[in-house]
Amino acid sequence: MNNEVFNMNRLGRYLMTDIKNAIARYGVSLLVIATVALTGYLLVGFFTMIVGAGWQSMPVAGRLFMMVLSFIVLTISAPAKIYGFITDKKEGSAFLMVPASSLEKTISMILVCCVILPFAFFAVYLSLDQIVCLIDAKCGDSLIVAINNGQNVLTDAFVRISRESNNIVPDYSSLATPWMYFDDVAQGFLIFLLGALIFKSSKPAKTVGSLILISIALSMITTPIVMHGAIERFKEAAASNMSPEEIFESFPFISWSMKHAVLVDFLSDTIVNIGLAIAIYFRVRKIKH
Amino acid sequence: MITIKKLGFSYDTNVVLKDISMELQEGRIYGLLGENGVGKTTLLTLLAGLKKVEDGILEIDGKKPYNREPSFLSNIYYLPDEVPAPRRKAIDFAVDHGQYWTNFSAQKFSEIMTVFDTDQNQRMDQMSYGQLKKTFISFALACNTKYLFMDEPTNGLDIPSKAQFRKAVSKYTSDDSTLLISTHQARDLEAIIDPIIILDRRDVLLNASLDEIAQKLYFDYSSDVDPTALYQEMVPGGNIQVIPNTTGAESKVNIEALFNAVLLHKNEIKEMFNK
User: Is residue B85 less than 8 Å (CB to CB) from chain A?
Assistant: First the structure.
């Protein structure tokens, strides 16, 4: 590829600089968020001791909830804290002047947000939880074990539901793959990264606000299309002796989407993620100070 | 070479630059002067590719700055008036960022920091504004770029630092580098800038070397008032007068007096230098 657009060595060097920038701007915050596992464990233990119930550990469900909550906080806050400076005239000018291409800068930002940050978060969070559960027998299953078990339960449930519905509900077990999770994780970071590059202040709040408005607008547009004539067809189906399979098949778009849910989920997430990445690239390319 | 032809730029309805044309030759240190709001910073940011040219042509060695190609960016450095304060040691910042500029020299950075009497191991977010500015000036010079644009570089510097700045620019700028320094503090840079560009809101009033200026204007420091003076200012011990040089006499250009003379007699000076 043209050296002015992409150069692997330059990307490598830029990524290293970018990682240092991320550590300087968000390293401490990441550690605080990723040590919620330990903090929560200690708080629950001390609290139960104070109320006279002896040292107790937070149950697995509670720890899973804490992890998801911490990860949501990370997704919302990290892109704005690490890259929000780009819209600032003083710091953003310095960023634009660095002799790397817009594509390299974009790829580096995406790698930091979508790969390095989640990896660092889960590495610290799950390791701490694992250590706590190794030390304290009352802790029960560690989160790594619980997630693995949960994955098996989810897969079994998908298979069972599909079998019990005589395959009207397709087998969605392949939805629960690491790639599908990554797709969604990346989407969250990409959305808030784009928001950090577009809005000049209150970046996470404005991004959430925009998401709500976009969701409402999309629902208003797509619902009439998808549900066109649905009420009439429901009435016709109810009046006739159609089997559940026939009713399901009488809505071609919905039945096709449900049968190909894995493909639909993969395609929709991938298309949206590519769209977001392209939007981030053009924002970096066209930003002015 | 920097080529600017009929350049125009506006912020919404506020026209800042219109029909600006000039050429900047290599290996010279240009002083960019002008009143507040005439577009000096805008011109520098356009040259650095931080803004998109709306009208006309602006090219540096045939390249359009706004494309921000890596090879182009590695040949230029823009030092804004206000600089950020990264949470890093100055030397770490310089070495880490300098790697993108092909000719960056960490040794030169250290030397210039020494000239400025600034600790390169100090964290930049703990520096005073003057120290921070000196760090960025050191970095800008250490990048050894072909084109260096500085916006009010002496703002925030104390009196000794201004002298150190002049020394650093003279000593650490290579002969083929082109510098464009915007300033309101003409006296700070009097010894190093040549040629002088005086920008008006919609015009380039002057783009001439000190030799050309001295050939066409005589700077008189006597106490006798000359009725033909384009500009006259009383100073302790006499006057500074800017007089059309009809005799070919030699004099030392006083940039502040020149600037005031140009502003008072825009058309006359333009005609004089366009002949």
Answer: no
Of residues B236, B229, B221, the one with CA closest to residue B261? B229
Could B88 and A288 be called an inter-chain contact, meaning their C-beta atoms sit closer than 8 Å? Answer: no
A221, two tokens: 């547009």
Of B61, B126, B129, B119, nearest in space to B91 by CA: B119
Q: B229, B220 in Cβ contact below 8 A?
A: yes
What's this model's pTM, rounded to 2 decimal places?
A: 0.89
Measured between CA atoms, the residue of chain A closest to residue B149 is A97
pLDDT at B242: 96
Q: What's the CA gap between A42 and A63, in Å, rounded?
A: 12
Amino acid at B225: V
Q: How far apart (Å, rounded) are the C-alpha atoms in residues A85 and A63?
A: 34
Per-residue pLDDT at A85 exceeds 90: yes
Contact B34, B74 (CB under 8 A): no
What would the DSSP string read from start to end of B99-125? Answer: TTSTT--HHHHHHHHHHTT--TTSBGG
Q: Residues, chain A, total?
A: 289
CB contact under 8 A, A93 and B78: yes
CA distance A159 to A173: 6
What angle do helix axes B159-172 and B129-142 make, rounded to 10 degrees? 10
Token pair recorded at residue B236: 């302790």
Residues of B with Cβ-Cβ distance to A100 under 8 angstroms: 70, 73, 100
Query: Judging by DSSP bridges, how do beta strands B55-60 and B29-34 pair with one another?
Result: unpaired
Q: What is the mean pLDDT of chain B?
A: 94
Helix/strand number for chain B, H first, E second: 10, 12
Reported as a pLDDT band with limits 50, 70 and 90, residue A165 is confident
CA angle A244, A230, A164 (to 5 degrees): 25
DSSP-derived 3-state class of residue B257: helix
Q: Are B151 and B219 in contact (CB under 8 A)?
A: no
Query: Are residues B51 and A96, on separate chains, in Cβ contact within 8 Å?
Result: no
Interface of A with B (CB under 8 A): 3-4, 7, 10, 13-14, 17, 20, 24-25, 85, 89-91, 93-94, 96-102, 104, 285, 288-289
Q: Evaluate whether B139 touches B89 at the Cβ level (below 8 Å).
A: no
Tell me the two tokens of residue A77. Answer: 């806050």
Q: Could A3 and B87 be called an inter-chain contact, meaning their C-beta atoms sit closer than 8 Å?
A: no
What element of type H or E holds B235?
Answer: strand B231-235
If you measure CA to CA, which chain B residue comes closest to A91?
Answer: B84
> Quick one: three-class SS letters along A40-82?
HHHHHHHHHHHCCCCCCCCCHHHHHHHHHHHHHHHHHHHHHHH
Chain A residues closer than 8 Å to B68 by CB: 96, 101-102, 285
Q: Is the pLDDT of residue A234 over 80?
A: no
